[in-house]
Amino acid sequence: MKLNDFRTFFNKELENIYPKKEIDTFFFRIIEAKMKLDTTAVFTKGDTKITDKKLAELTIITERLKTEEPLQYILGNTEFYGYNFEVNPNVLIPRPETEELITWIKTSYLENTNVKILDIGTGSGCIPITIKKEIPSANVFALDISKKAIETAKKNAENNNVDVTFLLHDILSEKKLESTFDIIVSNPPYVRNLEKKEIKNNVLNNEPHLALFVADNNPLIFYKRIADVAKYALNANGILFFEINQYLGKETKEMLISKGYKNVILKQDLFGNDRMIKANL
Ligand SMILES: C[S@@+](CC[C@H](N)C(=O)[O-])C[C@H]1O[C@@H](n2cnc3c(N)ncnc32)[C@H](O)[C@@H]1O
Fold it and tell me: For binding S-adenosyl-L-methionine, which residues are annotated in this chain's numbering (predicted)?
């Protein structure tokens, strides 16, 4: 089969499930990953012959996409801040809004060398690994309650050639952190069950619920706990950064102020949604 013919087949199989633009994005990513042909080549080399072995592989990917499995899990990796991260169903797929959080940290971190940073709820390790890449002098730590997430994050640190210390730790437990930090950052679980109807099937049925959901009656559970932990674990002039639920910006800000935090700044993402907060003691 030729590349053009496979594209026709691919479009037809997926047209009732995804918008055309998303199907095109999938196609370009798959052909790049599996046939090493870039987007231009998809248009200029449409008569490239696909071997039977490759075709079998591409057909399996098409079938998996039909079940709404995220392409990042199918291919086993994704790009975040220009770096490559292995992903699997034990870790959340890093999101573009988290890239904006990293940029905010980069532009406001303390200019001392060896700034010590902790990421709480690290998942794939996208936050600490990217920070270490972007601020090489930083001393970076990360924790997660999930052993499998920590294993994936460690692999990602190795693949990206950075040194990050990973800890298995339940941030909601009473166990105290043993170090103090100049920056504490977290993108914790924040989706309320009542928001489940807004969540697409590919997320709901595939990404780890441990990474996503909190109870409707206590949606800020992680933020409150981390704000308490940061009180003893932040160094003088230290900064706390959160990615937040876009519907709970005001509540998160008020909670931080009520716990004695100052300079609480709520920031919007590229789409104008309340998405990040920073504060200090
Ligand atoms: C929203 S995900 C964020 C993952 C990653 N930091 C990112 O931005 O893509 C939240 C993470 O918190 C972790 N988590 C959930 N409960 C936790 C707990 N009690 N203590 C520590 N980490 C927890 C989950 O395993 C998950 O990896």
Answer: 121-125, 144, 187
Pocket of ligand 1 (CB under 6 A): 92, 94, 98, 121-124, 126-127, 144-146, 149, 170-172, 187-189, 210-211
- Domain extent, residue 107, equals 89-280
* CB-based contacts of 158-164 (< 8 A; 24+ apart in sequence): 159/84, 159/86, 160/83, 160/84, 160/85, 160/129, 160/133, 162/129, 162/132, 162/133, 163/132, 164/125, 164/128, 164/129, 164/132, 164/140
pLDDT, residue 110, reads: 60
Whether residue 147 is found in the same domain as residue 250 = yes
Residue 41 shares a structural domain with residue 178: no
Domain end (from 17, 32, 67): 67
pLDDT tens, position by position, 150-200 = 999 999 999 999 999 999 999 999 999 999 999 999 999 999 999 998 999
Residues 161 and 223 in one domain: yes
- Residue recorded with tokens 């057909």: 59
Binding residues for substrate, by number, are: 187-190
Torsion of CA 107, 126, 23, 65, to 10 degrees: -160
